[in-house]
Amino acid sequence: MKFLLVGINAKYIHSNPAIRSLKAYAGEENEKLIETAEYTINHAAEEILADLYRRKPDVIGFSCYIWNFEMVRELLADLAGLLPDTDIWLGGPEVSFDGKELLAAYPNVRGIMAGEGEETFRELLGFYVMRQERKRDGDGAADTEEGLRAIRGLILR
Predict the structure, then answer these.
(1) Which of 35, 74, 100, 110 has its CA 20 to 30 A from that of 6?
(2) Number of neighbours of residue 33 by Cβ within 10 angstroms
(3) Which residues of 99-110 are buried (b: 16+ CB within 10 A; e: fewer)?
């Protein structure tokens, strides 16, 4: 299982502390399950999409801010066709306030992490780890919406 945290920065010299904080908070036991990827708003969307495709994540989480959300929207439009089996999550200040509208506009987005995301992300990662274990054990009810609804800080359909 691979959870890819994506940051799209304003400039190459900037870094995204949110994705590093989420990965660190998830703990050493989960370190191998989480990858980070950083790009800038100056990258071509095709370059970013090609890199995301090459990485083959099971889940992608985008860190959304005012300076990168237009690029994230552009990527979301193409990701459904490119990685149809990949769950996509959004988080950050740009998506926390109008989550229901964003979910309606982007049906390929599974949900939104609102507010302080560290604990929410750790629980969400735990959901995916448990889902993977249940699938491996042949449990058909591995992907239950109730499991997600139990995680505080998520906005779901």
Answers:
(1) 100
(2) 17
(3) beebbeebeebb
* pLDDT, tens only, 14-63: 678 899 999 999 999 999 999 999 999 999 999 999 999 999 999 999 99
The CA-atom distances, in angstroms, between 45 and each of 23, 93, 106 are 24, 22, 17
Nearest to 21 by CA among 117, 125, 124: 117
Read off the tokens for 78.
Answer: 């193409």
Q: How far apart are CA 157 and CA 103, in angstroms?
A: 7
pTM of the model: 0.93
Residues 126, 128, 130: CA angle, nearest 5 degrees: 70
